[in-house]
Amino acid sequence: MLHNLVIVGGGPAGLSAAINGASELDGVMLIESGRKSVSADGAVKHARQLGGQAIGSAAIENYLGFPKSITGASLMRLAEKQAIRLGTEIRCPERASSLELLPDGTKLIRTKEGGEYRTKAVILANGLSYRKLEAPGIKDLLNCGVQYGAPTFNPHKLGKCTICVVGGANSAGQAVLHLAQNPDATIKVLIRGTKTIEQQMSKYLIDRIKASANVEVLQGLSVVEALGNGKLERLVVENL
Questions:
Q1: 39 has pLDDT over 90
Q2: Cross-referenced Gene3D superfamilies, in alphabetical order (predicted)?
Q3: Distances (CA, A) of 148 to 40, 131, 167, 230
């Protein structure tokens, strides 16, 4: 079968391309690798999940049509339903592995699962991955007090605690505001490097962070080490 359009990546950009493409064309396909997990024995599994990093957002407030905000997961579920309703064929979990230009000008996409899809046009919406902290102790305490991505759980369950959010862009800002709903938590925003929070984050997030009594912004820092016995207990930082 010759597709008119194949999109690689099922995050916000890929789903948006699928919705717009399928509203004008037949034969639109979206390929997404899905959620990756690693079991205790080291086995890697991929499960169906679209939405990319956006699904970890606790509240998206600057998107058209949602004056009271919407969670990233809810927005991505709506986008997936819309893409399917318009006729997009979704292949997930499936991992694109190669792209070949054929003599007739069409493209051939192969996947690690053995799929071969010929298409007139390709959109690569591969998305991003979180930058990992390289400080000693971080890897050992992953999921034991250290996590990547914005939290979506009820922050009140944490009780009285200190939480460090490392990062100064919008994802960090959304995480901070979500966690700050717990009045017993002290949130410290650690901005690495020389850029200020004003150079990285949207103004509406900055204004709310500054108005939050339990949030402190610390700029120009570097994370040196994570310490703890089975769970994160201390984070060592230094001024740049």
A1: no
A2: FAD/NAD(P)-binding domain
A3: 19, 9, 11, 18
* pLDDT over 70 at 40, yes or no: no
Distance CA 90, CA 6 (A): 10
Asked if 174 and 198 touch (Cβ cutoff 8 Å), the reply is no
Using H for helix, E for strand and C for coil, what is the string for 174-215?
Answer: HHHHHHCCCCCEEEEEEEECCCCHHHCCCHHHHHHHHCCCCE
Domains of the chain and any CATH numbers: 2-124 (3.50.50.60), 155-239 (3.50.50.60)
Helix or strand (DSSP H, E) at 2: strand 2-8
Half-sphere exposure of 66 (CA within 13 A, CB side): 12
Percentage with pLDDT > 90 across the chain: 73
Contact 135, 127 (CB under 8 A): no
Burial of 13 (0-12, 13-18, 19+ CB in 10 A): middle
Average pLDDT, the chain: 92
What is the Cα gyration radius of the chain?
Answer: 21
**pTM tops 0.85, yes or no:** no
Closest CA to 174 of 11, 70, 59: 59
List the one residue out of 152, 164, 168 whose CA is nearest residue 59: 152
* Alpha-carbon gap, residue 70 to 88, rounded angstroms: 24
Dihedral sign, Cα of residue 77, residue 11, residue 25, residue 103: negative
